[in-house]
C-alpha cells in the first residue's frame, strides 16, 4: 500500500474539513469508522443543534468540542484509505497565528493542498495574512528538503452553474505574480474546483475534480530524510485517556520498534506500544504516521511538537540570509493594491545575540547571531552559530524568533517571524 501524507491549508471557513470529510465519505473503504462518526454526529445534531451541513467536517474532527463549535481548533491527521492508496491528511486551523502548525505539518507531509473559497477570490482575501503566510512558510520548508515544492489548489464553494473559469484564471495569474516576486520559479501548482452541498446525512451533492486530485496525489513522491539515524517528527501530545499520554507524528527515517529506548526532549523513554490509527503494530517504518506510548509519560500538555530523535547537521560557512516575512507580505499586498490591509507590527531589531530556531536540512536547530554582516532590501545577512550541541533536541514553541529556511548554493535563506 502506498502512503501519501498531505497537509491542507486555507483560511477559516474555507471548507478544508468539509473537503477532507467528503473524500473520506465518498472514497474511503473504512466504512465502520464512518458509521461510528455518523452515530456521534446524530447525537450532536439532536442534543446541541449542530447543523447538518457540518456532517462531513465532523467525520474528520477529533473532539466533540470542535464539532459543537463548528471549527477546527486542534491540528490532527485523518486516515483516508482508498484501495491500495493510504492518504494521511493533516488538517490545521485556518488562521495566520497557526503558522507553527503549517510548519510542523509541512515537515511531516509530502505535498500541500490549499483550499480557497470563491468569496475569498472575489475579495482578494486569500492574498492577505493566512494564505500568504502559509504559502511562503510551506514553500520554504519544502525547499529545506531539497524538493520541488508542489501545491494542489482547490477552488471551493463554487456554483457549478455559473462561470467560475474567471476565478480559476485569477488565482493562477495571482500566484504566478507572487511566484515571480518571491523567486518561486520552481513551484508546481495544480488547480481543481469543488462544490459540496450537504442537505442531509444521506443527501450530499458534490461536483468537482476529485478523481483528478486523487490521481495526482497518488503520483506524489514520498519525502524521506537521508539519515542513518532514526528521526521521528512528533506533532503533539495526545491523550487517549486522562492518564495515558502518547506522542503522535511521522517516522522520517530509520525504524521504531517496541521496547526501543528513544531520546526525547524529556530524557530517554522506552517504547511500550505503537499504534497506527488505532491498530497496534510491532514496528514502524519510514513514512509511517504513528502514535507512541512510552513507559513514562512525563510530557507536558503544552508540548507543541518537534523532532524526538536528533540528527542535526552543521552548514559549511555559518552564514544565513533571512527574508522578513511581514515585509514580504506587505510588498505583495501593495503589488495587488490591497492597501487597506492591517499589517503586522514592525519587526524587532535583529542584532548580535538574537537567538532563534530554524530548519537546516530538514531539522530544527537553535541558532544565535554572532554578527550582522549586511542589510539590503529587507534581507539580513548574518553570521550565526549553532547555540546548542547538534545532538540536543530543540522543541518547536510559539511563533517567536522562528526562521524557516532552505539551503541554496551552500547558503541558508529563509523567512523570519518574530
Automatic annotation (TrEMBL):
Short name of one Pfam family: GTP_EFTU
Xref: InterPro entries: P-loop_NTPase (IPR027417), T_Tr_GTP-bd_dom (IPR000795)
Domain Tr-type G: 4-210
GO terms assigned for molecular function: GTP binding; GTPase activity
Name of protein: Tr-type G domain-containing protein
Lineage: Archaea, Thermoproteota, Thermoprotei, Sulfolobales, Sulfolobaceae
Amino acid at each position: 500500500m502506498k502512503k501519501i501524507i498531505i497537509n491542507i491549508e486555507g483560511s477559516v471557513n474555507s471548507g478544508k474539513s468539509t473537503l477532507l470529510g467528503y473524500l473520506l465519505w465518498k472514497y474511503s473503504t473504512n466504512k465502520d469508522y464512518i458509521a461510528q462518526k455518523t452515530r456521534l454526529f446524530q447525537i450532536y445534531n439532536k442534543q446541541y443543534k449542530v447543523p447538518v451541513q457540518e456532517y462531513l467536517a465532523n467525520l474528520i474532527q477529533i473532539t466533540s468540542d470542535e464539532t459543537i463549535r463548528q471549527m477546527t481548533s486542534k491540528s490532527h491527521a485523518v486516515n483516508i484509505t482508498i484501495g491500495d492508496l493510504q492518504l494521511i491528511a493533516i488538517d490545521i486551523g485556518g488562521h495566520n497565528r497557526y503558522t507553527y502548525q503549517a510548519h510542523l505539518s509541512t515537515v511531516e507531509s509530502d505535498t500541500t493542498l490549499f483550499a480557497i473559497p470563491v468569496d475569498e477570490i472575489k475579495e482578494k482575501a486569500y492574498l492577505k495574512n493566512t494564505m500568504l503566510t502559509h504559502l511562503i512558510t510551506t514553500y520554504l520548508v519544502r525547499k529545506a528538503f531539497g524538493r520541488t515544492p508542489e501545491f494542489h489548489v482547490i477552488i471551493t464553494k463554487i456554483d457549478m452553474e455559473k462561470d467560475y473559469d474567471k476565478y480559476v484564471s485569477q488565482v493562477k495569474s495571482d500566484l504566478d505574480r507572487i511566484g515571480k516576486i518571491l523567486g518561486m520559479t520552481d513551484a508546481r501548482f495544480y488547480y481543481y474546483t469543488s462544490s459540496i452541498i450537504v442537505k442531509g446525512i444521506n443527501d450530499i451533492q458534490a461536483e468537482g475534480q476529485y478523481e483528478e486530485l486523487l490521481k495526482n496525489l497518488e503520483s506524489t513522491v514520498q519525502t524521506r530524510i537521508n539519515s542513518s539515524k532514526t528521526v521521528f517528527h512528533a506533532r503533539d501530545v495526545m491523550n487517549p485517556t486522562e492518564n495515558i499520554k502518547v506522542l503522535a507524528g511521522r517516522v522520517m527515517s530509520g525504524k521504531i520498534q517496541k521496547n526501543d529506548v528513544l531520546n526525547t526532549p524529556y530524557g530517554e523513554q522506552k517504547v511500550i506500544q505503537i499504534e497506527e490509527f488505532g491498530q497496534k503494530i510491532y514496528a514502524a517504518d519510514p513514512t509511517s504516521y504513528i502514535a507512541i506510548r512510552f513507559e513514562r509519560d512525563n510530557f507536558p500538555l503544552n508540548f507543541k511538537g518537534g523532532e524526538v530523535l536528533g540528527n542535526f547537521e552543521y552548514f559549511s560557512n555559518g552564514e544565513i540570509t533571512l527574508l522578513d516575512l511581514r515585509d514580504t507580505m506587505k510588498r505583495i499586498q501593495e503589488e495587488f493594491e490591497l492597501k487597506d490591509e492591517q499589517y503586522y507590527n514592525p519587526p524587532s531589531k535583529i542584532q548580535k545575540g538574537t537567538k532563534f530556531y530554524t530548519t537546516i536540512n530538514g531539522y530544527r536547530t537553535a541558532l544565535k547571531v554572532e554578527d550582522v554582516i549586511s542589510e539590503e532590501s529587507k534581507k539580513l545577512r548574518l553570521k550565526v552559530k549553532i547555540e546548542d550541541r547538534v545532538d540536543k533536541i530543540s522543541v518547536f514553541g510559539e511563533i517567536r524568533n522562528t526562521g524557516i529556511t532552505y539551503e541554496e548554493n551552500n547558503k541558508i535563506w529563509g523567512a523570519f517571524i518574530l
